[in-house]
């Protein structure tokens, strides 16, 4: 039974507009849902638009697991200019004509940036260094380096290449691309590294996230639409869409609801499995370990 005054349990798939932070969206959702127990799965910068998965009440406990799923982005990369933030919101720090950059060279370097790679995150990221956000250190003028991190770029595709002239008169190339990647991949860093490898510099001028795991922009709602009607994907439906499903009987449901390990279902998958009991009740997330189903999050009781 829900406690009086709490919001609905579930996910809200938001089509975030440009110019607002992810925390700003969370604040709006707290007001609309009537609860402070709201979080998001994966930050989007103010410049970026697209899919932001919001968890309400018990569904906030799904978010950490959803953050591990693949994401898809549509972006525009400008070759010929470097900025201090690796995107168009930062000051231009270097300009080099991109007139001589060949498509073959672009494709070659994109291939290098595809697959399992080591990536140095942008310094204006939210990564913590000794408990302090990287972007705070940048704003305070600190000189520091971030270590490279492993990440996976599943695909990196160029759809269109356009010649343009930047505001300072530099001939540049704008690339419209789609990137499918693992969580923790920085698209700004891909733009920076592509430009650097080509010898002309690069930065991101547009970014739209079109998918987080199973949740696509086609099922997302704008803030204006949510103001008119708060659309919440029930927690059970959200779990069934995001994770492999395991249906159990009444006795198994009772045990898993108290955190007891069960014999593994043998699905042979890495990561969480959503457990459902009689009446299609979502019970828990478990992981298969050494022949047992270990509960990682219980949602009843």
Automatic annotation (TrEMBL):
Protein name stated in the entry: tRNA pseudouridine synthase B
Family, similarity comment: Belongs to the pseudouridine synthase TruB family. Type 1 subfamily.
InterPro entries: PsdUridine_synth_cat_dom_sf (IPR020103), PsdUridine_synth_N (IPR002501), PUA-like_sf (IPR015947), PUA_sf (IPR036974), tRNA_psdUridine_synth_fam2_C (IPR015225), tRNA_psdUridine_synth_TruB (IPR014780), TruB_C (IPR032819)
The enzyme's E.C. designation: 5.4.99.25
GO molecular function, one term: tRNA pseudouridine(55) synthase activity
Catalytic activity: uridine(55) in tRNA = pseudouridine(55) in tRNA
Keywords carried by this UniProt record: Isomerase, tRNA processing
CDD domains cross-referenced by the UniProt entry: PseudoU_synth_EcTruB
Enzyme class: isomerase
Active site, renumbered: 45 (nucleophile)
SUPFAM superfamilies per UniProt: Pseudouridine synthase, PUA domain-like
GO biological process, one term: mRNA pseudouridine synthesis
Protein's gene: truB
Domain Pseudouridine synthase II N-terminal: 30-187
Taxonomy, superkingdom: Bacteria
Domain tRNA pseudouridylate synthase B C-terminal: 188-229
Residues in tRNA pseudouridine synthase II TruB subfamily 2 C-terminal domain copies: 243-299
Function: Responsible for synthesis of pseudouridine from uracil-55 in the psi GC loop of transfer RNAs.
């Amino acid at each position: 039974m829900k406690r009086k005054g709490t919001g609905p349990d579930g996910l809200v798939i938001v089509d975030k507009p440009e110019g607002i932070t992810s925390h700003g969206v969370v604040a709006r959702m707290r007001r609309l849902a009537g609860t402070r127990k709201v979080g998001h799965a994966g930050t989007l910068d103010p410049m970026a638009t697209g899919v932001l998965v919001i968890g309400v009440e018990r569904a906030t406990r799904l978010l950490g697991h959803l953050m591990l799923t693949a994401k898809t982005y549509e972006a525009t990369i400008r070759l010929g200019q470097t900025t201090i933030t690796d995107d168009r919101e930062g000051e231009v720090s270097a300009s080099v004509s991109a007139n001589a950059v060949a498509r073959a060279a672009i494709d070659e370097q994109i291939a290098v940036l595809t697959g399992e790679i080591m990536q140095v995150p942008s310094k204006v990221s939210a990564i913590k260094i000794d408990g302090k956000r990287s972007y705070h250190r940048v704003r305070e003028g600190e000189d520091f380096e971030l270590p490279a991190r492993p990440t996976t770029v599943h695909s990196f595709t160029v759809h269109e290449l356009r010649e343009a002239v930047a505001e300072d008169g530099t001939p540049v190339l704008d690339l419209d691309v789609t990137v499918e990647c693992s969580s923790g991949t920085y698209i700004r860093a891909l733009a920076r590294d592509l430009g650097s490898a080509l010898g002309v510099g690069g930065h991101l001028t547009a970014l739209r996230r079109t998918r987080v795991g199973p949740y696509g922009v086609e099922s997302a709602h704008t803030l204006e639409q949510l103001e008119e009607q708060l659309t919440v994907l029930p927690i059970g439906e959200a779990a069934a869409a995001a994770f492999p499903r395991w249906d159990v009987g009444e006795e198994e449901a009772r045990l898993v609801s108290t955190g007891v390990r069960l014999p593994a279902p043998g699905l042979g998958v890495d990561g969480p499995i959503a457990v459902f009991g009689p009446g299609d009740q979502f019970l828990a997330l478990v992981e298969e370990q050494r022949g047992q189903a270990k509960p990682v999050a219980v949602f009843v009781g």
